[in-house]
Design goal:
With 249 residues, this protein is α/β, with parallel strands linked by helices. The chain contains nine helices and ten strands. It has helices at residues 30-34, 36-44, 66-83, 103-116, 138-153, 161-165, 195-203, 206-212, 217-231; strands at 12-13, 20-25, 48-53, 89-91, 120-124, 129-130, 134-135, 176-180, 187-190, 241-248. α2 packs across α7 (195-203) and α3 runs antiparallel to α7. The structure holds zinc ion.
């Protein structure tokens, strides 16, 4: 069986006619591994970015029980967001590791979209694999898919009428959903201005990283993020980049 052809088409620059983005992911650290350098560039340009996490990542550290792990990772996530200019971080309190794709998740994400009224929604890889090599986790798949779906749900007053009753009016203003970490990127953001802050942002997840690797945490974060950004450069005019698969609405 032959390998799929390597995609070489140039990545387009991301659209710039927007002011508010909402990033929705499953766990603390998903955005820091995925796209924090892009977030730094956006907040530098005066755009407002808000983070919504489906869980507190409480099942992420083998040696730390969930009741202790959740609050710690929440704290690390807030510090991590602040490094790239994000002040608002919300948690939907789904259960880490067993997030279910379904109407409850879609409703919670649609509610967040109605609260924050973004033009751009960002999420993490909803497809089966990372780069066709590593199997993705069910949490990422569930939250990614539910976020793509909720971008539409948020605009329809009849899908979750209880949200309107709670005072959350429909928001039909989402123009794009950008998926970070996708195997099929179409667009990109120049990673250079935000790269150093993305390293510091990932480093804020220190408890998690110290368990994950024996390497020096800073070296680990810098090597990982620089390598990823460099890997996208050959499709972005030689510039290190944060790639996204962009869906228009
Ligand atoms: Zn994750």
């Amino acid at each position: 069986m032959s390998e799929p052809a390597k995609e070489t088409a140039p990545l387009e620059p991301m659209p710039e006619d927007w002011t508010r983005a909402l990033a929705v992911v499953a766990h603390p650290d998903d955005l820091e591994y995925g796209c924090a350098a892009a977030v730094a560039a956006w907040t530098d340009a005066g755009r407002e970015v808000t983070y919504v996490l489906a869980t507190r990542g409480e099942a992420g550290i083998d040696t730390l029980e969930p009741a202790k792990c959740g609050p710690l990772r929440e704290q690390e996530q807030r510090a991590s967001a602040a490094v790239v200019g994000v002040d608002t971080v919300e948690f939907l309190d789904h259960r880490d590791g067993v997030i279910e794709y379904g109407t409850a998740l879609r409703r919670d994400i649609a509610a967040a979209i109605r609260r924050h009224r973004p033009e751009l929604v960002v999420t993490l890889n909803h497809r089966d694999t990372w780069g066709g090599v590593y199997w993705n986790t069910p949490d990422h798949v569930a939250v990614g898919r539910a976020t793509l779906d909720a971008a539409g749900d948020a605009g329809n007053r009849w899908i979750f009428p209880e949200l309107t009753e709670q005072g959350l009016e429909p928001w039909n203003g989402v123009k794009w959903v950008a998926v970070a970490g996708s195997v099929r990127p179409t667009h990109a953001v120049d990673a250079t201005p935000g790269l150093e802050r993305s390293v510091r942002s990932l480093l804020e997840h220190r408890t998690y990283i110290e368990v994950l690797t024996d390497e020096d945490p800073e070296t680990y974060c810098r090597t990982f993020l620089t390598g990823n950004a460099q890997a996208a450069a050959d499709r972005f005019g030689g510039r290190p980049a944060v790639p996204f698969e962009l869906f228009s609405r």
